[in-house]
Fold these 2 entries.
Entry 1:
Amino acid sequence: MSKKTQGAKMSPAKNASKDLANQRGAVQSQTPFGQKFKSWRQHHRISAVSSLLRLLGMPLQTIMTSLVVAIALALPTTLFIAINNVQSLGDSWDASPKISVYLHTRAREAAIEGFQKELSDRADVKSVEYISPKEALASFQTMAGFGNALDLLEQNPLPPTLVVTPSAQAATPAGLAALGQSMSKSALVESVDMDMDWVRRLREIMVLGKKIVTILASLLGLGVLLALGNSIRLAIESRRDEIVIVKLVGGTNGFVRRPFLYTGAWYGFFGGALAVLLVELGHQSLAESVASLAAAYQSSFALAGLSLFDNLSLLAVSTFLGLFSAWLAVGKHLNEIEPT
Amino acid sequence: MIEFHDVCKRYATGQEALNKVSFSVEEREIVFLTGHSGAGKSTLMKLIMLMEKPTSGEVMIAGRNLGRLGSSHVPYHRRQVGAVFQNHQLLFDRSVFENVALPLQICGIHHRDVARRVRAALDKVGLLSKENALPISLSGGEQQRVGIARAVVNKPPVLLADEPTGNLDPELSAEIMELFRQFSEVGVTVMIASHDIELIKRMNRRVLTLEGGQLTHDGAMW
């Protein structure tokens, strides 16, 4: 079908006429299965290449259609990445839950030391770190430009703090709650702040976020199916005469369908490749800002993008989506075209 | 090879195209199909091509009852019937070579053999030098001959031709007829729909005449 595959290797024309006469007969020549399979593969190759050339022959429409696919895929992918990043941020806290125990500002050093020892002896506590108001102030001053603001204060407003790391067994929501409750009974304690609370909330929000993104991705995927289906329908319409002729000379539905399936797959592939590019561009443009923000919080957090595997999966999914939408469109429209 | 048993065809519009048509064409036979336009010639050929199905009666090709063929077998049946169409039905964005190669590619013939057989068919119709031309650049007669090459390239046991000499001068018409005669000699059953009385006379073959959907004459013309 494509010009490429036909061409150079031809036998001399002189013998051609004899050939035809010799071969002609009432019985159709039989082709062995192995050769049938070979030529089936051959037609796949031809269909793949010729549909690709056809798309490259109309670059504007190809780019537009691929962009629709790319944007529809890049949007949920970006949201997924964002959620995964936020979650990994939460998980890094989650891994070592700490309880900040704020003591009364007027608590005496000796009392605090005793309380610290008392806590360290508990079975459900792994370690206790004491941060005096002075130390807290010093660390605040080195951080994130608080320095000047703190200089304005007449006295140190920061309370003495005990940072309690629970033992592994106690690092469950229930265990932490019990630990927190028992600590807050002490007269020295002003308040107990469980870091766990916001981590847990964050996690709930992330679960919800993922659900929303999944729904969004499904809707956008459906949009891709419809948009590509329409492109395929147009491609079928523009080749109506050809389809009629192919059917007249004995082309099976599979034969007629094949180039259109490849067209869909190519649209999907191009869309996927553009989506990978868009996501990577977004990642690049944000990564630096995120890194400097993280540095400001003294964190080594880096914005994670897509791994090679993720990128390949995205390509595979979008190619499959293209193929599937072509399959739907072709199934619907091809049967309507019959020679009359 | 071609058998019609009491075939009736009534279109959804109510038009009765064929009425109780029965005949039988043997292998290697050449028959002409004549009649005014609208007499049912095209319908008869469409029934053989399975582009239409009879309202009643049976159409048998090579001993196979077409009425019993499922839709998935239709393409395989059409590969057994080479057809030359009045309006040529060529692909205008493909070269002559690619047009003639189409039936072979559909059948899954290896491209080495495709080239050889396409050349053979083009040589037969005298268009070997035009294999790289686009059909649009050819005359009506040449396009007709491309259609003939495409119809025979796959060596079908049955060849249908709808007004195959409609656009050709007498000399070329005679050549084409000679071609059909050669095909029949190597075993092809040929059915030709034609208005060209002179030509039919000269060929002196069996003639089927349709009038208003009925078969009114079957046999030698004179």
Entry 2:
Amino acid sequence: MDEVDEADDDDLMAQVGRRDQAAYGSLVARHLSSVHRYLTRLTASPADADELAQETLLRMWLHAESYRPGTVRLTTWLHRIAHNLAVDELRKRRTEPLQESHIPADAGADPQAALAASQAQSQLNQALDSLPANQRAALLLTRVQEFSSHDAATILGVSVHSVESLVARGRRTLRARLQQLQGDTPEPQQSNPT
Amino acid sequence: MTPQQFEHGLDRWGPDPSLWPAAYAQDARRLLDADPQARQALATAAAADAFLASLRQPTVPAHLEQRIVAQLSAAGPAAAAAQPPTAATLPLLEWLTARLWRPALAALIPIVAGFLLGLGSVEPVDHELAADLAMLAFSDLYAEFDDAQQ
């Protein structure tokens, strides 16, 4: 691991502020995956996620001077940029027909199991995509991206209490949608939930 | 605990009652033993949570990282190399904007400097020269006055 890789995000951002492209490349390698995953799940469109992730990281380069080390972590700052770009994109889509989710299910070796997994995955994706954007964002940030409620609140620009409320409502809505999609499923056999 | 309270707990603390506050966890286990609908709600919540956890896998395509790094060059030398003016001047700007008196102080600096410069360049008055200049000035006025009289 070279010296650039060992430097922490704040040091790398200081170098990006001095127009160091190697430092920029290191930060892209570090944060692209997380930002792209969030954008993919939030917009339900890998193509949009590619574009928005690219724009997010370009803004990191262009606006490196507005990053304040010590007040917010770089990943939180980047997710806030990404979130705002995604919200703009979702607003644009209001006048267009909603897209189907194009996120492929993970196929296994067994074709029947793969089909069942694909159907279940499709149902779950559909349930997630049908959530209101703010509930989906709060769930994704806390349950998928594993941000604290405090960091999620910074990204969404709301209070911690609002994030917790959005997560609870998101879970409830997701559970209700899943029950609708699954229909009347048989009661699980095991009585011990843990 | 009622089924509604149990579902509220699922939404608030998730599908693992062992992670709930102790007082609620014990009640939740009792309800789960007795109520099939609570077990159904728990199973659905657990499926939703497992699904969300499964979304942690990477989604980024292989080519995207190279494309993003390359876009600096594609955007042209201005985007790749231009120093944002704030990068160099940011500490000074931050200092200036942190307190109200600081920009006022900064504005006073050239005024005070100008005043001091002016004081330093004052020379003693040459009274003879001043008298000559005054005479020249008055002689013009008198000349104009005489012309008018004529």
